[in-house]
Design goal:
about 475 residues, alpha+beta, 2 domains, six-stranded mixed beta sheet, Chloramphenicol Acetyltransferase, about 25% strand
Length: about 475
């Protein structure tokens, strides 16, 4: 029985009827499709490796403590594994529309917070898996690690027979409340009794000074962002329905653009996304010469020895995408300057300590604060863009090779569009999730991202290598 971290509890509390906060993906495989029973048996054999998938969230009475993960005594895998099909031969559009409807639906918050859908009927004798996992359960990087549980590196891999499982007894409300009160007292005491010695105190003081200086140095940038003209048409109320689009790119093309034009592959990707938003706003007649689209870019602070841990270890930076700039090279330079500055700041500031500070927030205030911020709307940024590195080797499910996977990132709090980016083998895929009513032109954004990549690749062929710049 584990307690949700402050970050995970924040994602749980932020869930609303119009803002389901699960992450997901749509993965396409070479056929033939496995039977529904074979998929269920595979997942049952893997569940002992991910016990969270048999647990549900239980809130503490009166919010005296953060919610707990407890075993679901009525767990039934047939509820979580669904089976559907598209009319044969189902193309990309049919799969995309189906995935948009499935991913737009809320998970049942009273049950373990995940679903997997087996989709048959795709063209070229292919099939797909649509997966959904609530953000309070796992962040993007840990989610990629969890793929290793269900997916195999060997197409001939064998799997153990499903084992019996007995849930642990769910604690009573009184026991949960008493435990929360006791933890409120004992955790600060443990922190006090583990105070560091003089040398560590000195080191901590120097770290605090560095963090303070870095924060102070970032104030001018924050002031500039506060005065920057933003694309306000991208924010506003969110409805219950979603439009979902995707785009694809060759990783080699992105790497070639990075080598010739400088920066990182992530800088190149953000620049291509800038072109997509530029086309979108231009089509809406809302593009100004100084307009930017501010996107939140989540950053994992998970250490290497924490890979696979089932809790969120993320922070975020805010990048102004220069959509008003007509020159793609200048757009890349502007994005690169911001990302380089954030890297310097993140090195000076202990982001993990900032995240951990949430563990000392009163649970009732945490719940109220998160819910209030979601209801009030969020107008500091207009988009969410997250890049999750995937495996560069083939993955298999029941001997079938995965050929592609597109990510799904939730939207909430007035931010009406998100872009998930996933790399697998030699490709990088983009999954674009948008509010249905606010983005009837979501395809303009996805097509603009593709054009942004194409223009950078074309420019790269005419430029000397700039990897060292």
């Amino acid at each position: 029985m584990d307690r949700l971290s402050a970050t995970d509890a924040g994602f749980y509390y932020a869930e609303t009827e119009n803002a389901p906060l699960h992450v997901g993906s749509v993965s396409v495989f070479e056929g033939p499709a496995p039977s529904y029973g074979d998929l269920v048996r595979l997942l049952l054999s893997k569940l002992p490796l991910v016990p969270r998938y048999r647990q549900r969230v239980r809130e503490v009475p009166l919010n005296l403590g953060r919610p707990l993960w407890v075993d679901d005594p009525h767990f039934q895998i047939l509820y979580h594994v669904r089976h559907t099909a598209v009319p044969k031969p189902g193309g990309r559009e049919q799969l995309r529309n189906l995935a948009g409807r499935v991913l737009g639906q809320r998970l049942d918050m009273a049950k373990p917070l995940w679903e997997v859908w087996l989709v048959e009927g795709l063209e070229d004798d292919r099939w797909a898996l649509i997966s959904k996992v609530h953000h309070c359960m796992v962040d993007g990087v840990a989610g990629t690690d969890l793929m290793q549980v269900m997916f195999d590196l060997d197409p001939a891999a064998e799997h153990p027979a499903p084992a019996d499982w007995t849930p642990q007894r769910t604690p009573s409300g009184l026991a949960m409340a008493a435990g929360a009160v006791a933890e409120t007292v004992t955790v600060p005491l443990r922190q006090l009794t583990s105070l560091p010695g003089p040398e560590s105190v000195g080191s901590g003081a120097r770290s605090l000074v560095r963090s303070t200086r870095a924060a102070a140095a970032s104030l001018p940038a924050l002031a500039r962002q506060a005065l920057t003209p933003l694309a306000r048409t991208l924010t506003g109320p969110i409805g219950p329905h979603r439009r979902w689009a995707w785009a694809d790119a060759q990783f080699a093309d992105l790497a070639a653009a990075r080598t010739a034009l400088g920066g990182t592959v992530n800088d190149v990707v953000l620049t291509a996304i800038t072109r997509g938003f530029r086309d979108l706003l231009q089509g809406r007649g809302a593009l100004g010469a100084d307009t930017v689209v501010r996107t939140m870019v989540p950053i994992s602070v998970r250490r290497e020895n924490e890979r696979g841990a089932l809790n969120n270890q993320v922070t975020a930076v805010f990048v102004d995408l220069p959509v008003g700039e007509p020159d793609p090279v200048e757009r890349l330079a502007a994005v690169r300057r911001q990302m380089d500055e954030y890297k310097r700041t993140m090195q000076a500031v202990d982001a993990r300590s900032i995240i951990a500070m949430g563990d000392y927030t009163a649970p009732t205030l945490l719940a109220l604060g998160v819910r209030a911020s979601m209801q009030a709307g969020q107008f500091w940024c207009q988009a969410v863009t997250t890049n999750v590195p995937g495996p560069r080797v083939p993955l298999y499910v029941l001997g079938r090779r995965m050929v592609s996977s597109h990510p799904y990132v939730p939207i909430a709090g007035g931010t009406r569009v998100s872009i998930g980016i996933f790399s697998y083998l030699d490709r990088m895929t983009f999954g674009i999730n948008a509010d249905f009513d606010a983005f009837p032109d979501v395809d303009v954004l996805s097509e603009g991202i593709c054009r942004g990549i194409e223009e950078l690749v074309a420019l790269a062929k005419d430029q000397p290598a700039a990897a060292a710049r």
